[in-house]
């Protein structure tokens, strides 16, 4: 079916640039996930609430955690979703936030999520 409007964002607009690092406030920022985040991701998936939220578990060594972090680059390039690691001054992830079901035509995303790591739950913000 033909669109009745010009897309709010043309296809390729996001993929043409690197996923941004976003400062939130002094000492807190959002940055893209990296392979070296695998141990933190692996530890986070030991939490039953995180496994329930993501509807999966990590059984392997850090390889599965690296695959989880790597998928976000592909989703950014496909312009379908984005996820950031929430990091403090030490650049260690303390949580996750992101947008799912990105629709460039409407300039919208279906949902946003925030998932602090267990040890920082109630402190991030």
Topology:
Elements: E1 22-25, E2 28-32, H1 38-44, H2 48-54, H3 62-78, E3 82-88, E4 93-100, E5 111-116
Antiparallel strand pairs: 1-2, 2-3, 3-4, 4-5
Descriptive key words:
single chain; 125 residues; alpha+beta; 3 helices
Structure in words:
The chain is 25% helix and 24% strand. It is built from three helices and five strands; from the N terminus they run ββαααβββ. The protein has helices at residues 38-44, 48-54, 62-78, and strands at 22-25, 28-32, 82-88, 93-100, 111-116. Helix 1 (38-44) packs across helix 3. It is globular.
Global mean pLDDT: 85
Taken in chain order, the helices and strands follow as: EEHHHEEE
Helix share bin:
10-25%
Amount of beta strand: 15-25%
Q: Would you identify the regions where 5 or more consecutive residues have pLDDT less than 50?
A: none
User: Total number of β-strand segments?
Assistant: 5
Gap between N and C termini: 43 Å
Across the major sheet, the strand order is 1-2-3-4-5
Question: What Rg, in angstroms, do the CA atoms define?
Answer: 16 Å
The number of helical runs is: 3
* Class of secondary structure makeup: alpha+beta
Shape: globular
Mind summarizing the main beta sheet?
A: 5 strands, antiparallel
């Amino acid at each position: 079916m033909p669109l009745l409007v010009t897309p709010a964002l043309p296809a390729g607009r996001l993929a043409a640039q690197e996923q941004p690092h976003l400062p939130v406030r002094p000492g807190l920022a959002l940055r893209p996930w990296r392979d070296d985040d695998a141990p933190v991701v692996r530890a986070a998936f030991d939490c039953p609430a995180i496994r329930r939220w993501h509807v999966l578990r990590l059984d392997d060594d850090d390889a599965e955690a690296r695959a989880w972090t790597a998928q976000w680059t592909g989703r950014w390039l496909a312009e379908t979703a984005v996820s950031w690691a929430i990091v403090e001054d030490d650049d260690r992830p303390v949580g996750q936030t992101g947008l799912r079901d990105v629709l460039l035509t409407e300039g919208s995303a279906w949902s946003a999520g925030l998932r602090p790591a267990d040890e920082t739950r109630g402190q991030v913000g």
